[in-house]
Amino acid sequence: MKSIYQLARPRALASLAAPRVLTVQSPRANRLWQRRFSANSIASEGARLDASKLTITKTSVPKELSPAKDLIFGKTFTDHMFTVEWTAADGWHSPQIVPYQKLQLDPSACVFHYAFECFEGMKAYRDNKGQIRLFRPEKNMERLNKSSARIALPNFDGEALTKMIGELVKLDSRFIPDARGYSLYLRPTMIGTQSTLGVGPPGSALLFVIASPVGPYYPTGFKAISLEATDYAVRAWPGGVGDKKLGANYAPCIVPQLEAASRGFQQNLWLFGEEEYVTEVGTMNLFIALKNKETGKNELVTAPLDGTILEGVTRDSVLGLAKERLIPKGWDISERKIRMVELVEAANEGRLLEVFGSGTAAIVSPVRAISYRGELVSCGLKEDQEAGEIALQMKNWIEGIQYGDEGHPWSYVL
Amino acid sequence: MKSIYQLARPRALASLAAPRVLTVQSPRANRLWQRRFSANSIASEGARLDASKLTITKTSVPKELSPAKDLIFGKTFTDHMFTVEWTAADGWHSPQIVPYQKLQLDPSACVFHYAFECFEGMKAYRDNKGQIRLFRPEKNMERLNKSSARIALPNFDGEALTKMIGELVKLDSRFIPDARGYSLYLRPTMIGTQSTLGVGPPGSALLFVIASPVGPYYPTGFKAISLEATDYAVRAWPGGVGDKKLGANYAPCIVPQLEAASRGFQQNLWLFGEEEYVTEVGTMNLFIALKNKETGKNELVTAPLDGTILEGVTRDSVLGLAKERLIPKGWDISERKIRMVELVEAANEGRLLEVFGSGTAAIVSPVRAISYRGELVSCGLKEDQEAGEIALQMKNWIEGIQYGDEGHPWSYVL
């Protein structure tokens, strides 16, 4: 019987399994390794992902559109999906757009057992000229490549995928409601499909994209949420994978989320370490606006990308716009570690201006209060106020770019 | 548009999403929560898993048996599989044994996006009377229930599942080679199948069991492996899920495994924290036999179950047998934290007797050396020796029970 190393990808790993001489390095192994970590490059073995090979098979049974007001996030999907297979031997196969359909996978496929899976969340918007736009798609492509590399799944040409996502969106554009706040949520996903139970790098994978029409996150205006500061469970750890958009980061957070919900809180605010650093919300990054004690200046703070924080595209957009448009108004913009006690102190001293989450779904999500050690920390909103000034401004700025009201390089017209 | 909370399981979560009054606790939510964490109980909502409802559909195209010597771990499967669906509304549906077949799942199924998946590894053995035996199946059932509860998947009646696994094994018993060291590897797996992208507890799940005939891990006798002590990546942490058999614990370990392999090491030995505690190997627990500096006595050490260590069934069996059979010979048996420097010191002072991994696949896996900070720590084996005395003894003891040579309550005759 062969050892576990020989199973997973016989060709690629044969040279790794054999040697017992500890100083020998296999050139083959090194190439494999380099490919795995070269997150921004395309797969160096086999065929590249080639948009010119895209084939489109249209559905013969177009779906009926749901009324826009009934849309539920990620529940209904468009007529078609994008799909492309990858194998270690041949690289990327021919990409296809096909009718939305079930995946057929062997029950031993490694995605079911070892969580070989990563994804992205992005949106397509219809502007007031009827054009369709993506928002910073290159950021999603870059992150998906980083995520896939971290779990030994293949890399791909992000421009090629963006182009083919564009084809999918154009084909299914009738699903994008023509109203502000509505969009087509896109979910690029990569899974390992190898059908053996050996624990090793997948020898085959599937990259697919599905699309779900969605309405505004806050249809009747902002509604501030409340968070439970959580330290009994820990979302991410240095040396872990909390900065990657892996399936592995999500399932373990649901039970703490249910526990918080049972006490009336919509999400967990994940604290880290003895210092109780404020990290993120699991589905959102967190921004804190306060009057800095030392400088006396207004400061917009978010946790730095230290490996435990998801590299949010909206987070990056908020930071970029804040640097461009808030610094001139006297703000400091900081990516720095901030302790929960600093947030509490600012609240107690009337220096906490506002707190909001950032993410693709809601753009910004204002926070009313944070439960911490049995106390409810008020986050600066008045009782009848559902959003702070900065959150409101950020939503307007970002939405203005997403819907093309403002010409901006972040908006990508299909 | 509804909020993320209302999507995932509308019925169960409706009461969680609405209230803003922070002190109100929803009785519904509490029941849900209690079920989630009552890892040893069966699902309290809907129907129980009922073995009396099992239906069997036999294949019309039985597979040809592979020659025993060609068997590769987890690569070929038997004629049939066990499968049962669960829904939040109805509980467990009717269990079935059906021909081995592909799973058909919506591309939005939560197992593909958020790693709602957990599994077990166990084996069926043919004894010298031709009877078929399982080894401590109740431990696997208990652990699978703990794993599923941790990621908001349903619990089930472990005795009922064991009984039905027995039916599957008997139906496919021709696949178990009649030779020492051979067995039928069983892979109970539970996945979340809900087809929406909202991040919440799955409203539906699938529990399935597939079976793969396997040969002896070391067909030509033991072959000691070498490990790379790893601190740049972290497998598990306090407050995380490293003690559960979740898919989420596996994919993130593959790239470090490839890196270790590129330097000639078969597995990572995961160190934790500034203290560099020796934890486990990811696919195995670790045992260290040394002469204790303080007591002068022989000591068999393994890391304690502090939440970062998988609760291995073989680990528990090694500990149980060691307490019963080694303590009378003057050994101390310790579940305690041990630092890498303590292991190095023992090696340098000639007090390190042997090191071995424990797991279902190999039972025990002797370790020749551990790479640590650029040095190679020799783990007590002579150059021509592939296994230490304790590892050898443990393998014989456990195999003797598994194959029914020794009557023992751990062995479960079907």
Automatic annotation (TrEMBL), chains A, B:
UniProt keyword terms in alphabetical order: Amino-acid biosynthesis, Aminotransferase, Branched-chain amino acid biosynthesis, Pyridoxal phosphate, Transferase
SUPFAM superfamilies linked to this entry: D-aminoacid aminotransferase-like PLP-dependent enzymes (SSF56752)
Reactions this protein catalyses: L-valine + 2-oxoglutarate = 3-methyl-2-oxobutanoate + L-glutamate; L-isoleucine + 2-oxoglutarate = (S)-3-methyl-2-oxopentanoate + L-glutamate; L-leucine + 2-oxoglutarate = 4-methyl-2-oxopentanoate + L-glutamate
Enzyme Commission number(s): 2.6.1.42
Domain of life: Eukaryota
Database matches in InterPro entries: Aminotrans_IV, Aminotrans_IV_CS, Aminotransferase-like, B_amino_transII, BCAT-like_C, BCAT-like_N, BCAT_family
Keyword Ligase listed: no
Protein family: Belongs to the class-IV pyridoxal-phosphate-dependent aminotransferase family.
Name recorded for this polypeptide: Branched-chain-amino-acid aminotransferase
Origin species: Aspergillus cavernicola
Lineage: Eukaryota, Fungi, Dikarya, Ascomycota, Pezizomycotina
